[in-house]
Amino acid sequence: MTEIQGERLKIAIVGAGIAGLSLAVAINALDQDHKIAIDIYESTPELSEIGAGVNVWPRTWCIFEKIGLGESLAPLFDHPPNLEPRVIYEIRKADQKDGFRVMEISKNGGGLRIHRADLQRCLVDHLPLPSHSGTKANSSCTLYLSHRLVDYTYQPSSVLPAKKPVVLHFADKPSRTCDILVGADGIKSTVRQLFLTRLPNAPDYQKCLSPRWSATVAYRSLIEKEMLRRLSPNHRALDHPGIMYVGRYKHAVAYSISGGRYLNIVATIHDKSREGTAWEGPWNSEVSRHELLDQFRGWDEEFQQLLQCIERPTRWALHDMHPLDTFASQRVLLLGDAAHAMLPYQGAGAGAGIEDAYILATLLTHRLTSTSSSPDHLSKLIDIYNCIRVPSAAAMVKSTVTQGALYTLAVPELDEYKEGDHIPFDRLLDVFHTVADNWSWTSSDPEEDRRTAVELLQRSCGQARL
């Protein structure tokens, strides 16, 4: 394939969340041929992240280093990003007056925790925007705010190749064009809904159009450590990497973020009687502290002290997606939560989107992908993206559901027990040894998937392995 002088492959990214921004940064980092133009479209008038803590496992950290974020991100963590064995969580059974320690879970590299807004800010700072003179611009990049996508169409063949093949239609904004459309617009993705309804077997994907409620709510808050210190000067959470408080159908985690200034608290409640039902009302809303305290009445005093420091908790209805067997077709690809929204129990949602971005950026910037790439070549690229990312994401979605059941002691072998009951210690150990085993992937090497993607691309183009 030969490059068209002065022409760039135009990639439209719909959604400026963690996954979409990671794709833009990864493309710029890997685009050594300066052949890609990136347009990012965000529906909101300004960039802002809701939520608080994000887990960055060693696997994800490896990608951040590869795309040039290591130096900027490292100072934001509470320990050096290396593979030394570190505690991820101390597990405590807490659905009783006198809680107790079950075990500690340690893994190579531990878990790096960061405020979601800090991560987003770092990603934005590394976009190759014209205003970012300190960022090396391999690719060109433009960020469009207040652009809400409502539809996309394809140009008639009579105007190709003079015009870009995909037309993006926005509410109250002029239409724009691109070569490839990437939907990174989250769990309520407009791109996913449009994409699935246009597949040849669209009726098969009816249940995948909208998210499904998991019969679980999560109460979230940040608390200042100094507030907790005044209430309980020797509280375990003040100096511990992470604590998980567990009980039947309920669990909570507490860990430091923002340089140790805050504790991120997430407390979940699963209502088995509402499985298979839809959530009514807004997905997240501010609730009273009384509501939160009432949900955990009778729990361990140490955990109650954390809750007493929460002033304005928010309640989130946790949703995920029915698994998709394809993330891409023709010139449209899905990324992150738009493709595989998952529950938070593996701390893997953001990381999975970042892996999507890394694989896709690798394929788009490879020397075999030209600015004039034919539909045949793009079809091969899409097949490879699906081959690498669909099974990996599906396995993670399934694993995170399993992990959530283990955290909340909602497994068949414990069905005889209810909240607050004494559970034999050896049975608790069995559960949380399984939890530890389910985190074995966190320090694995993402480069294996990248190498596989490159080899498949070379093979599909008749190139020998480099």
Automatic annotation (TrEMBL):
GO molecular function (one): oxidoreductase activity
Keyword Glycoprotein: no
A biological-process GO annotation: secondary metabolite biosynthetic process
Key words, A-Z: FAD, Flavoprotein, Oxidoreductase
Superkingdom to which the source organism belongs: Eukaryota
Alphabetical list of InterPro entries matching this protein: FAD-bd (IPR002938), FAD/NAD-bd_sf (IPR036188), FAD_monoxygenase (IPR051104)
KW NADP (keyword) present: no
Protein name listed in UniProt: FAD-binding domain-containing protein
Source organism of the structure: Leucocoprinus leucothites
